[in-house]
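Box 3.1 A note on notation
Throughout this textbook, protein chains are presented in two layers. The first layer is the amino acid sequence; the second is a token string describing backbone geometry. Keep the layers aligned when reading.
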Amino acid sequence: MKKNYVLDTNVLLHDPTSLYAFEDNDVVIPVYVIEEMDNFKKQQDELGRNARAVSRELDRFRKEGSLNKGVPLPEGGTLRVLFAKTVIPAHLRSNHQKDDQILGVGLDIRSAEPEKPTIFVTMDTNLRIRADALGLEAQDYEKGQVRSKEMYSGHSEIWMSAEDMNRLHKDGTVELPEGPLSPNEYLTIKDLENPNHKTLGKVAAEKDRVVSVQPQKKPIWGILPRNREQVFALDLLLDPEIKLVALSGKAGTGKTLLAVACGLFQVTDEQRYERMLVSRPIFPLGKDIGFLPGTVEQKLNPWMQPIHDSIDFLLSANRRDKGKNSEPYGGLIDMKIIQIEPLTYIRGRSIPNQFLIIDEAQNLTPHEVKTILTRAGEGTKVILTGDPYQIDHPYLDSLSNGLAYTLARFREEGIAGSMVLEKGERSKLAELAANLL
């Protein structure tokens, strides 16, 4: 049965291709949505670009017919732009007139076409609640969301015969057992005859064998793994064949510290990459960093302090480990070993042969992550770190953010790997706070 989908402004600003996301159903755009998008179309950030893209698409449809009567969509539905006839009763109105008018269009459609289900689609949680209170069915925009069953930890447990485990220790590799395993998925391997006998392994990128994984014995800029997941994360970060790494986990699990340590090691010690480029989505992608005085680095200092803390800690650890003075942080920047850059300037760039760390990636939309990844040039490795359950973006959640989306989409790709870090290692206090509060 065909349905009517009434779209809110935030859906179109989040995904300008959402007009085509409802198969052969009919799509309705309240004219007030277009008026709201006028507030964004002059901005030079991602919202502005999306607003302009939607306006161009609607104008293209306008040339094909009357938007009031309906213009055919490629999949068989129609696209309409409508005004509201229904006025929300005074005692049910909110402080946001446009929201009331948008809901009014949904109520009009439901009354005019009772034979077809009418669904209001918005990423605004409170507006979904208001729609439901008015008797209008409301849904979140689900395109790009990761289903909970797809949430991927990056590691699993398997059983293996003692003979195969001995072969794995001896040869470093063994034939892959049957099962739903993914490339670069890490394994805790248990002996069928003696469950207390365990070893670590990894599914090869070609999915034809298991490769032995050994804990890092030599400190990486003074850092050694403290738990099993950190062993796996270091293996991902140091493997030159894996070009995309997603590290997720709660605060204090070592995501950023491990990424920065491996980046500095591979830039300075191994000289595998030209520099380490670090950024965080402290602003919506593309938004200007303001009129604060100073250089880009000086403007970003307050927002990049967590990265500075990690680097300072590693410099101290590296000095202790090597027993000599290491290059101070400022010197690393002067030598262009480390570069701090806002995401504002990444669009249109090509970034070759660099170790690129995007911290707090859970605050990126799937489209913004795509923008970043498509900038990676030859020889570049991209690290996404973040906590999918600690999101500041008003219209993202644990299933729709860019980090979770990328993790799910790249699960079966041999050049990508991911790991969920579970145990906090910052301090006992930090671990208790993360678990209890």
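The longest strand covers residues 155-160. The radius of gyration is 25 Å.
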